[in-house]
Amino acid sequence: MLYHLLYPLHEIYSFFNVFRYITFRTAYAVITALIISFIIGPWVIAWLKKSEIGETIRKDGPKTHYVKEGTPTMGGIQILIACIIPTLLWADLTNKFIWLVILSTVGFGVVGFIDDYLKIRDKNSQGFRARYKLLVQTGAGLGMAMLFYYQFAGTPGLTQLSFPFFKNFLPDLGWIYFSIMVLVVVGTTNAVNLTDGLDGLAIGPIIIATMTYAIIAYVVGHAKFADYLNIIYVPGVGELAVFCGAIVGAGLGFLWFNSYPAQVFMGNVGSMSLGGALAAVAVATKHELVLVLVGGVFFIETVSVILQVASYRLTGKRIFRMAPLHHHFEEKGWSEPKIIVRFWILAIVLALIGLSTLKLR
Question: What is the pTM of this model?
Fold first, then answer.
């Protein structure tokens, strides 16, 4: 909105030419989102408390979590408001990628909201039954895939899949690509949801991953950089750096209230919307598989659950003391802040490795 209102004024006042630059608008999207998050955070927490929207702790989870019972949840509403408004203010709203990613974010946010509502209504940690949740998420993922196809049908490289570290290996998968797109979206959404088990554990890697994808979006959408790095050039996708910047700012603002000991939890409305946003950006930038590295913490947490379930069903034995992996370390006696910070460090290292794939191919 500000871009459309102020950039045309550059013909009269040269100062307004700065609104042309994605880097400038990304920086101010971060700042705007952070300010909005700081302003509405206390109000959201107060409203959640007044409405008695509190966390229901799993009875089979770590015993140390019982003290978290009743902590306001669904704080993801704060994140959604704080990232959508700056995006609308600073992004080019004629850009199709912006609207597709916003739709993905809000769509999965709605799924998460319903899941949270069911937990609160029924006063248990179940929410959606697993099979129904997966069905709804798959439907949302298919909807996103259809939107991408409808908007960009005929675009060169649309159904190509880029492999990290491989220079010229870009297989065109045809219609199979859209099934992979759904898998990336659903997998990422659930992975972020599984990671959201400790104070600040999920939002930290989200901030790191979206910062990384802001860089990826910028270079993929820049013809000269894309040619130099020998990566698929996607015209217009650089605008997603503004959206990523808004998530970074909103995430930092939320972390202010979510850091240990948390005043509020993001709930599924937060984890699912952020997972949907991250996956949509990865798909739009044609760097879907790099997400395994950039969002490596989410991937590791998911694999730990899969291995735990498979091992128990096949052998009757557990690999970890408790899954997801962060609970395993809790059971080993690690303090919650230590686990959180060490997972953040791991997220930074993996994000740097993910960025290196832009050049190492």
Answer: 0.93
